[in-house]
Amino acid sequence: MLAFVIYKAVLCVIIFAISLGVAAYSTWWERKFASFLQDRVGPNRAGPFGLLQPLADGGKMFFKEEIIPNVSNKFLFILGPCLFMVTACMTSVVIPWGKDFMMGGRNFAFQITDINIGVLYLLGVVSIGVYGIMIGGWASNNKFALLGAIRASSQMISYEIAMGIAVIALIITSGGTLSLHEIVEKQDAGVCNFVYQPLGFLIFFICALAETNRAPFDLAECESELVGGYHTEYSSMKLGLYLFAEYINMFISSAVMAAFYFGGYNFPFAHELYNAMGLQEGSIWISLIGFGAYFTKIVLFICLFMWVRWTLPRFRYDQLMNLGWKVLIPLSLVNLAITTVVAYYFNK
Amino acid sequence: MLGYTITQWLFGILSFLAIMFALMVVFTRNPVNSVLYLVLTFFCIAGHYLVLNAQFLAVVHIVVYAGAIMVLFLFVIMLMNLNEDTEPQKTLISKIIAGCIGGVLLVVLVGSLKGAEQLQLHQAGASQIGLVKNLGKVLFGEFLFPFEIASVLLLAAMVGAIMLGKKEIK
Predict the structure, then answer these.
(1) Same domain flag for B74 and B151
(2) Which of A128, A132, B50, B79 has the most other CB atoms within 10 Å of its CB?
(3) Closest-CA residue of chain B to A153
(4) C-alpha closest to that of A299 among A18, A52, A10
């Protein structure tokens, strides 16, 4: 029992540290990637290749003057970024990072918790994530911040529907399980879910862009219309938390997409590789190699997010709503209908 | 711990929090704070569902009520810019009447709960009914017809809302 608790506590800390580390270096990589696409050099002063830039940014954020508008609701103003950060970190709990491994005759899962409603838990946490933006935007007592918050909430509610329907189709394909661990294990021997659900993946990806408020869906902080959107009034580390949580969200949604549609920690010819290396089933090395493969997929998805951001211009608000309600929702319903019929005839 | 099981402790704490937040919904003067307290109340109720082993209900409760409906409430209140100054002052008479009606409702609710302790759950494996699989089987098997009727009702409400929202009907 004690070993179990210690293991889970250590795993929590490691995953938390990895999320923060990846988010920090995503900010660096985002700027490097943008500079590459725009034929510039990018940050290169702090450390080799500018690698210490995230630390410098973090230090700067902490030492900046903290301004709280005196007509706003102070408690809610502080609560906003905290809530956004907490919900961003909460989603990593159900993600399976690698295969289970045996140590000292015990089975250890490489996942903080494998609840049997993991997928629903993810949707639930995503749906309450919008409160951080709404509370912060309202408590700023600023018209631009309020408009940004309202845009963010309506956008997230609209795209959640299409995302949910795409996930239902995925669950049907993976045999009706809501546990992320089982969804990933189902893709172990065969092909990954992307082959069965290409349209579903496309819908999920677009919705993930919208849910994380990334360009071309970053209307919530559209600087050409709304100054800075919902975080106009924020300064110092509270602004830092908002910006940072966006990168954590991006990391987690990349992890979810890799787990749902691209097999998570499975990769082609994995078993042949393990046999060639002489690894027994349940060895910790299998877990770690799987984690490496998973991490590569996540990094590729993060690059895809950035590529999209620096390639596509921002949508207009009516285009955003039309895309969500008139294109994605009907498409996801068609996808669901086709999946249901095909699954029914295959199982018969 | 004091002769209570952990479930009873959880029930007690969640009930205390739920009632406290529900009272705060009524007593705060700022509408936005009221909505936020209501969201907290919903979270406590979702916790109750978890204690009852109804995981599906708990998560759907959070997704639908806290994640969608209350966001829309907040949306409307923020857009209308309601705050303490615009809150209308009610006269003493309307306060007394509201108190009486609320009290009568409380009596009715307590009265309807009388005798509830003698009720028995007839379904076999009733403690597992809240799990997604079992709930789905019951909803799409035994209770398919009322379930579908409820969905038609929701559709009608949606169509009605769109009709009302249109400026002119062609």
Answers:
(1) no
(2) A132
(3) B71
(4) A18
Q: For residue range A284-307, list pLDDT tens digits in order.
A: 788 888 888 888 989 999 989 888
Note down the domain range covering A342: 2-347
- Closest-CA distance of chain A to residue B39, Å: 10
Residues of A in contact with B60 (CB under 8 A): 120
Of A126, A135, A153, the CB nearest to B75: A153
Say which CATH number the domain at B64 has. 1.20.120.1200
Is the same domain home to B56 and B132?
Answer: no
Last residue of a domain, one of B56, B84, B112: B84
Number of Cα atoms under 13 Å in the Cβ half of residue A150: 17
d(CA A292, CA A277): 16
| Cβ A245 vs Cβ A252: under 8 Å | no
Is residue B57 included in any domain, yes or no? yes
**Chain B interface disruption, residue of A134, A147, A151, most B CBs within 10 A:** A134
Cβ within 8 Å of A, B 25-44: 32, 36, 39
User: What are the residues of chain A with a beta carbon less than 8 Å away from any beta carbon of chain B?
Assistant: 76, 115-117, 120-121, 123-124, 126-128, 130-131, 134-135, 138, 146, 149-150, 153-154, 157, 160, 176, 178
Beta bridge partners, A102, equal A107
Q: Block means of pLDDT (10 residues each) for chain B, length 170 residues?
A: 77 90 86 87 89 84 85 82 67 87 91 74 62 81 88 91 77
For B29, phi then psi, to 5°, come to -90, -20
Domain span holding position B149: 126-170
- Asked if B148 and B73 sit in the same domain, the reply is no
Residue A106 β-bridge partners: A103
Number of domains in chain B: 2
Q: Which of A3, A243, A260 is nearest to A122 (CA)?
A: A260
Instruction: Render pLDDT for A229-246 as a digit per residue (tens, 0 to 9).
Output: 788 888 888 888 888 888
Question: Hey, what's the torsion of the CAs at B16, A75, A250, A311, to 10 degrees?
Answer: 150
The answer to whether residue B48 is domain-embedded is yes
Of the candidates B32, B65, B84, which is a domain's last residue? B84
Is residue B39 a part of any domain in this protein?
A: yes
Which sign, positive or negative, has the C-alpha torsion A289, A292, A298, A303?
A: negative
What's the pLDDT at B124? 55
**How many domains does one find in chain A?**
1
Q: Is the residue at B27 inside a domain?
A: yes
Of the candidates A208, A224, A166, A163, the one whose C-alpha atom is nearest the C-alpha of residue A298 is A208
**3-state class percentages of chain A: helix first, strand second, coil last, to nearest 5:** 70, 5, 25
Our CA-based measurement puts residue A297 at a distance from the nearest CA of chain B, in whole angstroms, of 29
Neighbour count for residue B51 (Cβ, 10 Å):
14
Convert the pLDDT of each residue in A179-230 to its tens digit: 888 888 888 776 777 888 888 889 999 988 888 888 788 777 767 777 777 8
